[in-house]
UniProtKB/TrEMBL annotation:
Family statement: Belongs to the pyrimidine 5'-nucleotidase family.
Keyword annotations: Cytoplasm, Hydrolase, Magnesium, Metal-binding, Nucleotide metabolism, Nucleotide-binding
GO molecular function, one term: nucleotide binding
GO cellular component annotations of the record: cytoplasm
The protein, known as: 5'-nucleotidase
Any single biological process term in GO: nucleotide metabolic process
Keyword Hydrolase: yes
Catalytic activity, as annotated: a ribonucleoside 5'-phosphate + H2O = a ribonucleoside + phosphate
Entry EC number(s): 3.1.3.5
Subcellular location: Cytoplasm
């Protein structure tokens, strides 16, 4: 009898989650702890948008990994693959990518060992970029020419988050100027957004270097935003979005958060990485190029709001 009760309760809880948010039933959605997700979804819907904030990565999280079976550009990829930049730069950038990218995405290498390698990579790329006299108008052209794409539904999501004054913190190891231009061309940079990334310094409209410390994939939790007062906003419900286990600490500065929902996009190497992602994130979206789940959750949270 007890086994029957346990079985019934387990599936009833699953029903409650899926009833509130049917998008959780999609075949590309992996959830390890249904009970936990049910409680989080219930709380988020009950509390509404006034208690919510978003903390997110950018490349391959808010942007597509692939489109029509072709890999999309990242922020760095916009430059690496641009015909506006000299061939010599693209060759050197590709060589660096071939050396360091396998380290970044190897699930069997510890983060502590990856971090110094990423520092090496980013430093060398930034030095290369500093030799190119990049202008702001050139950034506009390179983004327009590139294959970078926001995930399907991002524009709708950003509009909704702005309408309901939900703070959006984007922490990116990419290039802040490229990131901002992508948002401008494909959606908008809204007033509720704060972007923390590697921003270029310009002098007389020519890039001369970068501001502040290097932000790479595995030190996002150590950037200055976590030591500031940004998270002192009485918003205890956090949705964290990322595509790497290095993104799990994006919200480390939020000391008083009561509920964090960690959603991870698993874009590649599914067979070798799925269990790692399932153990790390609350929800794993496998080879998904949209933000349907986020839009559905926002809709449920605001259904009864004026």
């Amino acid at each position: 009898m007890q086994m029957k009760i346990n079985y019934f309760w387990k599936h009833y809880v699953r029903y409650l989650s899926f009833h509130r948010l049917p998008e959780l039933k999609a075949g590309n959605v992996c959830i390890s702890n249904v009970d936990k997700i049910n409680q989080i979804v219930k709380k988020f819907i009950s509390d509404g948008p006034d208690k919510l904030q978003i903390v997110t990565d950018f490349d391959q999280t808010l942007t597509m990994h692939s489109y029509q079976n072709k890999r999309c550009d990242s922020c760095h990829g916009v430059l690496d693959n641009s015909s506006y930049l000299p061939d010599d730069f693209r060759v050197k950038a590709a060589k660096l990518r071939d050396i360091y990218a396998p380290i970044e995405f190897d699930p069997h290498i510890e983060t502590e060992k990856k971090a110094p390698k990423m520092e090496e990579w980013w430093t060398q790329v930034h030095e290369l970029l500093g030799t190119l006299n990049i202008s702001k108008s050139l950034i506009n052209k390179m983004v327009a020419q590139s294959s970078v794409r926001l995930r399907i539904g991002c524009d709708e999501l950003f509009k909704s988050l702005d309408k309901w004054n939900v703070p959006v913190l984007i922490i990116s190891a990419g290039l802040g100027d490229i990131l901002s231009e992508i948002l401008t061309q494909q959606s908008a940079v809204y007033s509720n957004m704060k972007i923390v990334s590697n921003f270029m310094k310009f002098k007389e409209d020519k890039m001369v270097g970068f501001y502040d410390e290097i932000i790479h994939t595995f030190n996002k939790n150590k950037c200055a935003i976590h030591k500031s007062g940004y998270f002192n906003n009485q918003r205890s419900n956090i949705i964290l979005l990322g595509d790497s286990v290095g993104d799990l600490h994006l919200a480390d500065g939020a000391k008083d958060s009561s509920t964090i929902l960690k959603i991870g996009y698993l874009n590649e190497r599914v067979d070798e990485s799925l269990e790692i992602y399932k153990n790390a994130f609350d929800i794993v979206l496998v080879k998904t190029e949209n933000v349907d789940l986020m839009n559905a959750l926002m809709k449920r949270m605001t259904d009864n709001k004026v």
